[in-house]
Amino acid sequence: MKLAEIDQSKLKYPLLKKLLKDQMNNGVVKFTDLVSTVPPKTQLSSYGYVEDCYQINHPIEVVFEKYKAANPKEAWKGGGLVDFALGLDKNNGEIYYPGDDYPGAKVGQVLYFHSSILGLKKLCMAQEIVQVDKTNNVIEFSYVEGGMTAGSQIIRFKSISPNETQITHTSHFKGVSPARDKYLYPYFHSKIISKFHTNLKKALG
Prior knowledge:
It contains 4 helices and 8 strands; from the N terminus they run αβααβββββββα. With about 200 residues, the protein is of the alpha+beta class.
């Protein structure tokens, strides 16, 4: 499937349309041309680092499956701070518009998000799911090349009792400005992912 085949009439955000156009202008023709910014074995020592922890009072198996199955439109509902904008599957060419049925997180899916910082700065970003490991209870995303940020986000699940699960969300990042990485990214990133984890905690009840 080609990026040019995405139905632009179903895209809500002008910045998403611009990002897709920029990607195509930079040589991304097919979904499979989208490339992760953090290939396996990338050394992350020069990247910024932020870690947030959460606890959900449900068994780890239930929590992991919920995170894997959650529709990104609901999981990333952030009241404008962050919203799911589009999903693509590099494996089978499927397109997931907001509101579509979602088959669950799989390696090779690329998810686009729109974010509005304080109602002033708006941006659009893309992340590829690069790991869904049920055995080790890990889900990992990587930013896609062509955006403002390179890096990865790893969500680890740990059972701390039969009905309690600890979630650690670790992010490594490198942006266009050292000042942005030091002062802005950690604060707003933590606010955004807090929305995500809060939504899933509420969905679990």
